[in-house]
Amino acid sequence: MRQSIQLLTPYKVKPEFDMVRLDSNEAFMSLLSSADFSKLGETLINRYPAESSDRLVEAYARFAGFPEGNILPGNGSDELISLISQYALDPGDEVIVFEPDFSMYEKNALIMGAEVTKIQLNDDFTLPLEVVKSEINERKPRLLFLSNPNNPTGQLYSEAEIEELIAAMNQIGGILVLDEAYMDFAGESPFTGRVLEYDNLIILRTASKALGMAALRLGFLIANDRLVEGISCIKPPYNVNTISALIGTQLMEKADVLDQFLLLQLEQIAELEEIMSAFAAQIKEAYLYPSSTNFFLMKFTRARELANFLYEKRIKIRFFDDESLQAVRISAGTKEEHDSLRAALNEWSEMYA
């Protein structure tokens, strides 16, 4: 094993389908019934999926408003993050990530042998812009990764803040990778119609969150012609399988279904916020952060105890235990799942409030 990856650990997820699962920021219901499976019988699984990927990109371009010729599909955003790292990084290059943020940015940079600088977000999880610009000027990073809205904080950064990061990275010849996995919950991205205006901006989108297709593993990279052409040179030719592309295309062609699904999720997000706010108000040491996503982060000195308590109640949430974050993150679920969560939180409150 290469020395630069010897300290990495596997990302293992224990399958637990018999629980209320509010830990992975997935959509809480499946849209599979909206797909036409009669066409699966006509699928040539003995052929590579070139045509199906093309149709998927066409459908996503129409649905999301990005230019079709500037979209690369991927086997989830994870693969696209890996491809960007392979495209941009030589061993020893600098990469900037934020803490907390999505862990796969750092991991892929380390796999490429890059040097990773972590910049701590402010206490309220806002961007320390002056610190970031100073680090950019000093370290000259090849890549700066940022999720917007942020995972796991739920924080939405402003267009002006992103513009400053783009400009700072452009001055030193670096690329800003803007991961908009949760942007559908926050509204329209200010960069949807403008991504091609920038020399050094890559946007990542996914079908795994608001579109409810996590099992299909569909991600999309959007950038200018030069970046798309360069990353295409290292992208595997058949990286999105035919079945995922076929189902994904059918669902994306039903914009009315997806729009209604998003509205339903927003209703459940509001309900979850009410549940979490009521709980945080009863627990003195708990602080609930505002969110522009389908999950809420709560700082809590007894976060581990709460996560273990809920696990015993067959409710799985995400627990963060590191230097920068002692917190729980809870995703929106169904009304029935929220009822179970509310009852468990009330029981905890009665014991410890």
Provide structural commentary:
The chain is an alpha/beta fold. The chain has two domains: 15-27 and 256-352, Aspartate Aminotransferase, domain 1 (Alpha-Beta Complex), CATH 3.90.1150.10; 47-253, Type I PLP-dependent aspartate aminotransferase-like (Major domain) (Aspartate Aminotransferase, domain 2, 3-Layer(aba) Sandwich), CATH 3.40.640.10. Helix content is 40%, strand content 17%. The protein has eleven helices and 13 strands. The chain has helices spanning 50-64, 76-88, 103-111, 129-139, 159-171, 183-186, 225-232, 242-252, 255-282, 303-312, 335-352, and strands at 20-21, 71-75, 94-99, 115-120, 143-147, 175-179, 201-206, 218-222, 287-288, 295-299, 315-316, 318-322, 325-331. The strands form three sheets. The protein has a seven-stranded mixed β-sheet, sandwiched between helices. Strands 9-10-13-12 form a four-stranded antiparallel β-sheet, covered by helices on one side. Strand 9 and strand 10 form a beta hairpin. Helix 1 (50-64) packs parallel to helix 8. The radius of gyration is 21 Å and the shape is globular. The protein starts with 19 loop residues before the first strand and ends with a helix. The mean pLDDT is 94.
